[in-house]
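Example record

Each entry pairs one chain with its bound ligand, adenosine-5'-triphosphate.
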Amino acid sequence: MAREKVIGPSSGDDERKQHDAALRPKLLKEVIGQRKVAERLEIAVRASQKLNEPLGHILFDGPPGLGKTTFATVLPNELGTSIQMTSGPALSKPADLLPFLTNLEEGSVLFIDEIHRMPRVVEEFIYPAMEDFRIDIVLGEGMSARTITYSLKRFTLIGATTRSGMLSGPMRDRFKMHEHLEFYSVEELATIIRINSGKLNTPITESAARELARRSRGTPRVANSRLHWTRSYSAAKHDGSISEPIAKAALDMAEVDSDGLDKNDRRYLEILIDLYGGGPTGVEALAATINLASDTLSDEIEPYLLREQYITRSPRGRVAMPRAYTALGKLPPRPKPDDKQGSLFE
Ligand SMILES: Nc1ncnc2c1ncn2[C@@H]1O[C@H](COP(=O)(O)OP(=O)(O)OP(=O)(O)O)[C@@H](O)[C@H]1O
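Structure tokens for the complex follow.
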């Protein structure tokens, strides 16, 4: 298995990361869903082993919790090499990258989460490392400045981003593979839930696994957290096992509705409909009213609402779709007769 080295400041919610790490698949064959992505990665791993070359740099993009870190940690396991993990916000200057680059082993992986948040000067510093496995360090200033070139071990950079559009063109072009992760089907999430309840020694019925899966916003991380909550609920109120009625009661208590929308999703839709007349309205205005960062809205809340057609994005902002009205128990407005076809719900 890959040895995991974490150097420098950790990047966030440690408890959530521990839960994630405990349930994370270790090998490609244990990864559920994302079959096309997994098959392409399998080819890349085999080729790297046969040709005795490091895996080409890989960029994963997609909404949070869909498995970007999972794929990044599975690949060094497949290759029998080590991984170092950091994140864009932890790398504020080129020197922050040095401990990672100097600790590289031949063929090892450097994983940078939220790579779109890496400052431009760090990005530029990493280009020669990605292209030629070298870095240029400038010593001194002005006329007396000189550049020392330092050779690195051949390595693989794996970047993860929720916003591939925010990555500069030159950075994007330096990745050999770009893999986009999609939301999961109910069947795939039910499989993940069954496997993870096994890992947590929690008996679960087939229909309970499906109920949790249906209400997990197409996202494995959400499925894991619904499973953890339901397990605690059952341990506290029942015998620790999960049946369909227990799953339903636990999720109702957590205010997850029958479609899987949580409090933040419903608040978003309520504000869009009640306060902004269903839109169009800009994400900044919505974020200010909901009192959440606009990044949280566009990275975590909106992708699922867009994909499930609760909302749509028009040039003038977000617009509530008929499904949003139904989810809140409201009647969708009728399009006005003089509206252009589809103008209300573009
Ligand atoms: N394809 C998968 N098969 C099985 N389990 C998965 C899969 N993808 C994700 N998971 C589960 O979901 C958890 C969260 O996934 P992961 O941390 O990889 O998401 P992420 O896309 O990196 O999210 P973020 O960008 O927010 O860090 C994992 O610990 C794992 O348990």
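Residues 263-327 form a domain with the Arc Repressor Mutant, subunit A fold (CATH 1.10.10.10).
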